[in-house]
Amino acid sequence: MSTTSRKSAPKPVAAKAKLSPVPAPIDVIVTPDMSDPTLPEPKMPELKKKELLEMVLEQGDFKKKHAKPVMDAVLAALRLALLDGRDMTLPPLGKVKLTRAKDTQGAQVVTCRIRLAGDEGDKKPASIDEKPKAAPLAEVED
Q: How many CA atoms lie within 13 A of 141 on its CB side?
């Protein structure tokens, strides 16, 4: 008995895809068009409490010794409202909405959205000495 080896049909060989060499990445530097008014301006330095107090003093005829405790009290009240999770409507600033609060080690991180008031918020408040003009009670007849 002779043994013959049986050959199986050749298996189709998948055609190897030829890979084209990958070109080196090109560095593209995009410079924004600075004439576009929608782009934010360069970031201003952080506003510190001392500068805020000076801004308050410029708004009216206040003495520093009177304005500083009031400003400290306002900042403390804002802090307490944020810790309580309260949304605030504070004209002429606008609306402050608490979106997220997270306790971390040694501090609480609060994320807020602030919707700034319109143009009326840019106006300086009237001086304390100025009294609003009252409307006349009756018209004068000739």
A: 0
Residue type for position 11: K
Cα(68)–Cα(54) distance, integer angstroms: 10
Q: How far is CA 133 from the centre of its chain?
A: 39
pLDDT tens digits, one per residue of 70-100: 999 999 999 999 888 899 999 988 999 999 8
Q: Tokens 């060499």 appear where?
A: 21
Task: Show the tokens assigned to 25.
Answer: 């990445």
Give SS3 for 79.
helix
State both tokens at 19.
């890979």
Sheet holding 107-116, edge to edge: 88-90, 94-104, 107-116
Q: What angle do CA 60, 63, 64 make, to 5 degrees?
A: 110
pLDDT of residue 115: 92
Domain ranges for the chain, please list them. 48-84, 87-119
Instruction: Indicate whether this model's pTM tops 0.85.
Output: no
CA angle 15–17–20, rounded 5-degree value = 160
